[in-house]
Amino acid sequence: MKTFIRLLLVSLLFTNILLASGGISGGGIANIPQGQDREKYHLGKAVFNQEITLEKQPNININDQDERLEYLQGSLPNTEKRRVNLPDLSGKLTEEQLQALEYFIQVRFNIKLPEKKKDK
Fold first, then answer.
1. Cα–Cα distances in angstroms (integers) from residue 103 to residues 38, 56, 97, 107, in the given order
2. Beta-carbon count within 10 A of 59 CB
3. What top-level branch of life does the organism fall under (predicted)?
């Protein structure tokens, strides 16, 4: 009888070890990029979280920026839509900042944005 109980306990122990999950997963947040894209990601993150001061930019196509920012706003998860209002940034971003913001949103929220066509 003691041998049976020991065998049962050992088998339960090994079963629990084999079926263990190994930890808690990240929950859908993408990995931060390495190399050159890391700077772009962090600039986009700073713009998204409004950690940098933005001033009105001269010689910027405000309609184009407004359209791109509204599309980004619509692409965000509902919790983020309530937290940030990206169209408010229209006219205040340089092209580099806007591209970094688009890149950050693509990576952070795993969103595919349409490719831009190059005008010749």
1. 10, 22, 10, 6
2. 4
3. Bacteria
Contact 72, 101 (CB under 8 A): yes
Per-residue pLDDT of 67-103, as tens digits, reads 999 999 999 999 999 999 999 999 999 999 999 999 9
One-letter-per-residue 3-state SS of the chain: CHHHHHHHHHHHHHHHHHHCCCCCCCCCCCCCCCCHHHHHHHHHHHHHCCCCCCCCCCCCCHHHHHHHHHHHHHHCCHHHHHHCCHHHHCCCCCHHHHHHHHHHHHHHHCCCCCCCCCCC
Does this model's pTM top 0.90? My answer is no
For residue range 14-70, what is the model confidence (pLDDT) as tens digits?
665 555 555 554 445 557 788 878 999 999 999 999 999 999 989 889 999 999 999
